[in-house]
Amino acid sequence: MVLPVLFAQLKKQETFQDYKNISMANKLKIASISAEVAPFAKAGGQADVARSLPKALRRLGHEVIAIMPLHGFIDTDKHRLKMIAENVPIRIDKDNTQNVNFWQGELMDGLPIFFVDHAGYFGKYKFIYGSKNDNRRFLFFSLAALKLLTIIDFKPNIIHCHEWHTGLIPYFLKKRFQNNSFYKSTATLFTIHNLAFQMGQDWWTVPHDKKDFGHARLPIFSDKASISCINFAKRAILYADIINTVSEQYAQEILTKEFGQDLHRILLHRKDRLFGIINGIDYFDFNPATDPGLKVNYDFNTLNKKERNKLFLQKEFSLPQDATIPVIGIVSRITEQKGFDLIREIMEPLMTRDLQLIIVGNGERRYENFIRKVTKKYPKKIGSHLKFDTKKASQIYAGSDIFLMPSRFEPCGLGQLISLRYGSVPIVNAVGGLVDTITDYDPTTKKGTGFVFKAYDPRYLLMAIARAIENYKHVEAWSDLVKHGMQQSYSWEIPAKNYVKLYNLALRRVRQKV
After folding, report:
1. Where are the beta strands (DSSP E) in 152-284?
2. What is the pLDDT of residues 451-506, one digit of tens each?
3. Model-level pTM?
4. Is residue 474 located within the same domain as residue 497?
5. Cα distance between residue 514 and residue 187, in whole Å
6. Of 49, 101, 250, 497, which residue is the least packed, with the fewest Cβ within 10 Å?
7. One domain for residues 275 and 180
8. Mean pLDDT, range 205-213, rounded to an integer
């Protein structure tokens, strides 16, 4: 099997292995740029990272700002945003210039967040993604964000580019702005949150003769068809000073054909600057002791209170209230990636067991229709809410006994970290950040934090659920397992320090012109 050999090769690389020895002494100026930042706009875990990481960096003493689009659904009054610049011209190319407004708010004391306001590209939309013009929208956003930095005179050491939407920023700095004195010493770090997303359409739908190989000049902005074929993620990988993914395992997986989403060859060529840092979760936001959305607050010392959240959850989803029945929770985008093919295949045998299943999330229609069908068929065993709802999500983390996350691939995953925090034991597939964060429980040694299955196969998932349910029957051992999981530390403190070391490595490469 090629994969372990490849992993061994990676671990021998000095830069991959030893970057954590780099000094963190220098205080940095960091611009974090993302299409979504919670609580202003959220489509997934990227928004949580783009909120929590800048906060953690600020607590470490760095000067940090965040930049995002002013999406049409963002309430400027509610978030106390103030316009700081109006009708600023953004030169897109020699034939196209458009004006933009800039707004300012605050993520926390001493951490400002800025918004790019353009009615045609962001203001008219009630969603973050999904327009046929997404490539044009985020190309414009990238140039506007770079213009903003000059207007507020924030000369960053590092521009941290989150996901494909900001992927042209490294390209612009190496090409259009390579002789610009303002950005002369600025390094870029590009974070891959999910390599499946590379541009404003599915990368695999682009005809071969239209594919972007990453080095040619960008087409004129008014050529919508050509702009729509630009592969933002590919250009970021080619031009960023440092690239990282959101777990160490995923950084290794994407170098293979199976997980590389057709970019594995380029990534192999650039593997000397590819790193993995596991995400954290914000322990101020995700805390069962203080979460206002729970029926009863608790921690690992008052675990008996968790039962009241379970009974409340059962009532909320019109299920029989019985504290002895194991409740399996799912909070997820309802997509193929998240393992819903497996869930669909095991549903009938699963329903022969004494358990309850509660699902919150939204996504692909085929899976949503299936969930509606089985919820109707098994009204005393399945509850569902096919919209993402933060409060209901918290209720599932607090009220469920088991948290199901059988993703086909998972760059990091936050659900399993939150479930540990709230005392819901995760069941996960052994991929990406899931295997980096969850260890398989062994009832003989009492070691482990969850239940891990090691092949993407419905039989393996069903066996993992069966193991969890069997162990659930042993009340004292299960309580110890829950408490052990709740005491795991996945705060942002350590990941933030590792990001600082990557920033310094990026700066070193810029100085050395590597």
Report:
1. 158-162, 187-192, 242-245, 274-276
2. 999 999 999 999 999 999 999 999 999 999 999 999 998 999 999 999 999 999 99
3. 0.89
4. no
5. 11
6. 497
7. yes
8. 94
Whether residues 357 and 417 share a domain: the answer is yes
Q: How many domains does the chain have?
A: 2
437-458 CB burial, b ≥16 within 10 A, e <16: bbebbeeeeeebbbbbbeebeb
Task: Report strand pairing: 382-385 vs 63-69.
Answer: unpaired
Query: Using 50, 70 and 90 to split pLDDT, how confident is the model at 38?
Result: very high
Number of Cβ atoms within 10 Å of the Cβ of 84 = 16
Model confidence at 26: pLDDT above 90: no
Q: What is the pLDDT of residue 283?
A: 87
Residue by residue, DSSP assigns 396-454 as HHHH-SEEEE--S--SS-SHHHHHHHHT-EEEEESSHHHHHH--B-BTTTTB-SBEEE-
Q: Are residues 433 and 332 in the same domain?
A: yes
Specify which residues 189 forms β-bridges with. 160, 242
For 272-296, write each residue's pLDDT tens digit: 999 999 999 988 889 999 999 999 9
Q: What is the mean pLDDT of residues 238-259?
A: 96
**In a domain? residue 308:** yes
The pLDDT value given to residue 7: 36
Residue 286 lies in a domain: no
Same-domain status, 448 and 332: yes
Q: Does 288 fall in a domain?
A: no
- pLDDT reported for residue 11: 40
Q: Is residue 290 part of a domain?
A: no
Does residue 269 sit in the same domain as residue 378? Answer: no
Pairing between β-strand 96-108 and β-strand 111-117 as defined by DSSP bridges? antiparallel
Using the predicted structure, report yes or no on whether residue 8 has a pLDDT greater than 80: no
Same domain, 33 and 166: yes
Do 89 and 158 reside in the same domain of the chain? yes
The residue segments making up the domain with residue 440 are: 300-486
Structure tokens at 349: 């045998």
The tens digit of pLDDT for each residue in 69-105 reads: 999 999 999 999 999 999 999 999 999 999 999 999 9
| Domain CATH for 217 | 3.40.50.2000
Which residue, among 142, 50, 13, has the nearest Cα to 505 in the 3D structure? 13
Query: Which amino acid is it at 454?
Result: K
Asked if 503 and 275 count as a contact pair (C-beta separation under 8 A), the reply is: no
Q: Using H for helix, E for strand and C for coil, what is the string for 140-178?
A: HHHHHHHHHHHHCCCCCCEEEEECHHHCHHHHHHHCCCC
Beta strands 82-93 and 111-117: pairing type? unpaired
At residue 450, the pLDDT reads 98
Q: Tell me the C-alpha distance between 8 and 167, whole Å.
A: 29
Measured between alpha carbons, how far is 299 from 290 in angstroms, rounded to an integer?
9
342, two tokens: 């497996």
Percent of the chain with pLDDT over 70: 95
Closest Cα partner for 272 from 37, 17, 4?
A: 17
